[in-house]
Design a protein that fits this description.
Structural class: alpha+beta
Order of helices and strands: HEEEEEEEHEHEHEHHEEEEHEHEE
CATH class of the largest domain: Alpha Beta
Distance between the termini: 119 Å
CATH topology of the largest domain: Chitinase A, domain 3
Shape: globular
Number of helices: 8
Radius of gyration: 31 Å
Strand content: 25-35%
Oligomer: single chain
Number of strands: 17
């Protein structure tokens, strides 16, 4: 009786210990399973490679193994891209469409240069023709559907020089540097539909602007010539050189500001004249038209309505619906 009791106690303890181990293992497995769902990457500590699921432009899923910083595809034109998520939209934007974006871009050293939300929660811009070869931001936009999120690497010098039209490149940007763009395509609106939807707003701003320009012109003693487009020109000094023609490489000095008298850019302050091809859509429409009416040596003032400048879009420090004033001297036309 004594021995049988001992045996049953041993058996009971054995079953109890095994049950505890099973429960502990089950809890451990459950915990591991729970934690594993929170992991985004499976990193190999020896190779520092990462297994990542990524999206192609068409929404197809791919499984890639690489260093996290190197998981980029490259288009035939040389644009580096990585799709983060695929939206439910089906149409891609075309030139002239208005794009509503959530966008940032920074240097490869993580210096943030632009955050669209800081400018406007409904930030938008019109899709222009590709500004340069080798992979440009316009091509990046054309690859995205509504709802898509993606990261792009774009040559910094090309973007600043050709897309933004900057004359001087910041000292911290070197040849070969890339800018990292993070973009979410929120909405795509057909260009013609956008104009129709905003016709009343345009009419309001045009009426307000016309009244403002008329008062502004009265403060000058120069004769004001109004072009059919709405551009107003005043000649400060008449030059004796040849007329600038479409296709000429023209060189100008300018001071650019707003109709309230504040200045936002000046080649004179930089002591660096600006050069562009006339009639090649390299500058805003109002400046292009104004210079095309000048002779070498002319010194003029252009009052450029917002519709001949940046329209309802913000550009750098220039707010939407801004009337611009350019004081321009035409130095050369070849």
């Amino acid at each position: 009786m004594k021995y049988s009791t001992i045996i049953w106690v041993v058996v009971f303890l054995g079953l109890f210990i095994q049950s505890c181990n099973n429960n502990h293992n089950a809890e451990k497995k459950t915990e591991i399973k729970k934690d594993s769902t929170e992991l985004k990457y499976n990193i190999d500590s020896a190779s520092e490679e990462t297994a990542v699921i990524i999206f192609n432009p068409d929404g197809q899923i791919e499984y890639v193994k690489a260093n996290p910083d190197d998981i980029f595809r490259k288009t035939e034109s040389g644009l580096d891209y990585r799709f983060i998520s695929s939206g439910k939209g089906k149409k891609y934007p075309k030139v002239g469409d208005v794009l509503y974006l959530d966008m940032t871009y920074k240097t490869e050293k993580d210096s943030m240069l632009f955050v669209s939300r800081d400018i406007d929660k409904n930030f938008k811009m019109r899709l222009e023709v590709p500004s340069h070869p080798g992979g440009c931001i316009e091509q990046a936009f054309m690859m995205m559907k509504e709802g898509d999120s993606a990261t792009f690497k774009i040559d910094a010098v090309n973007f600043l020089s050709y897309t933004q039209g900057k004359v001087g490149i910041p000292h911290y940007i070197k040849k070969g540097d890339k800018l990292i763009f993070n973009i979410k395509m929120l909405k795509i609106v057909d260009g013609s539909d956008y104009v129709k939807e905003n016709a009343d707003m345009y009419a309001f701003y045009i009426n307000q602007e016309n009244s403002l320009i008329d008062r502004y012109v009265l403060s000058f003693d120069y004769q004001c010539l109004t072009k059919e487009s709405g551009l107003k020109m005043m000649t400060i000094k008449k030059g004796s050189g040849k007329k600038a023609l479409k296709g000429n490489a023209v060189t100008i000095h300018y001071t650019a500001g707003f109709i309230d008298g504040s200045v936002f850019d000046s080649t004179i302050e930089r002591n660096q004249p600006f050069r562009f091809i006339l009639g090649n859509e390299e500058v805003i429409e109002g400046l292009d038209e104004g210079v095309s009416n000048m002779n070498v040596g002319d010194h003029c003032i252009f009052i450029i309505p917002f519709r001949l400048a940046y329209g309802d879009e913000k550009s750098g420090v220039i707010p939407p619906y801004s009337t611009l004033v350019f004081e321009v001297e035409l130095i050369d036309a070849k």
